[in-house]
Amino acid sequence: MPEGWRKSSRSGQQSACVEVGRVSIGAAVRDTKDRAAGYFTTTHAQWSAFISAVKDNRFVG
Questions:
Q1: CA-closest candidate to residue 7, choices 26, 25, 33
Q2: Residue 45 belongs to some domain of the structure
Q3: What is the pLDDT of residues 11-60, one digit of tens each?
Q4: Residue 20 lies in a domain
């Protein structure tokens, strides 16, 4: 079960964001607007690769 759910400090008071929690294999991600819908998990390697891509602006179209 995920622990320590948190959302980005850059989200401010926005309600359209995601939260990240810790799981033994890596990270869990859920929608803050619909927490009851569940979450998905990623491995440490997947989460690290995603964070690196975000920091490198690889998702900017």
A1: 33
A2: yes
A3: 777 777 889 999 999 999 999 889 999 999 999 999 999 999 989 999 88
A4: yes
Q: Count how many Cα atoms sit within 13 Å of the Cα of residue 61 in the half-sphere of its side chain.
A: 0
Q: How far is CA 22 from CA 2, 10, 47, 58, 59, in A?
A: 5, 19, 11, 24, 24
pLDDT tens-digit series, residues 22-36: 999 999 999 988 999
> What's the number of domains the chain is made of?
1
Alpha helices in 1-61 (DSSP H): 44-55
Reading the block at residue 3, the tokens are 């622990």
| R_g of the chain, CA atoms, integer Å | 12
Q: Contact, 41 vs 24, CB < 8 A?
A: no
Residue of higher predicted confidence among 8 and 20: 20
